[in-house]
Amino acid sequence: MTHKSKWLLFSPLGLVTIGAGACMVQWAGSLMNKRAPAKQWVAAGTAALVVLNAGVSLFGQGVVERVLHEVRERPTL
User: Fold this and answer.
1) Average pLDDT in the 54-59 region?
2) Fewest Cβ atoms nearer than 10 Å: which of 21, 44, 50, 51?
3) Do the beta carbons of residue 48 and residue 10 sit within 8 Å?
4) Nearest to 17 by CA among 57, 77, 44
5) How many structural domains does the chain have?
6) What's the rounded Cα separation, in Å, for the pair 77 and 17?
């Protein structure tokens, strides 16, 4: 798999995952506001933060792949 194809895979996937994690954080907050049992909203919040951080990691890897693509494709002077 080339750096360009990895970049085109990781970056959008990371953005989608970040969005899903952000929505899940809001969902966990609403569980807390609805006075759901602490065990339930803490578990939901933890899962939400895991998804959000996974998205940041995927997007970061996309940035790395973009830089590697740019470095390798740069014409030699």
Assistant:
1) 98
2) 50
3) no
4) 57
5) 1
6) 39
- Tell whether the model's pLDDT for residue 76 goes beyond 80: no
Question: How far apart are alpha carbons 29 and 40 in whole angstroms?
Answer: 11
- Please tell me whether residue 24 adopts helix, strand or coil conformation: helix
Amino acid at 77: L
pLDDT in tens, 28-52: 999 999 999 999 999 999 999 999 9
Q: Give the whole-angstrom CA distance, residue 33 versus residue 18.
A: 23
Structure tokens at 46: 């933890």
Q: Contact, 31 vs 44, CB < 8 A?
A: yes
Sole residue written with tokens 């907050």: 29
Average pLDDT (3-21) is 97
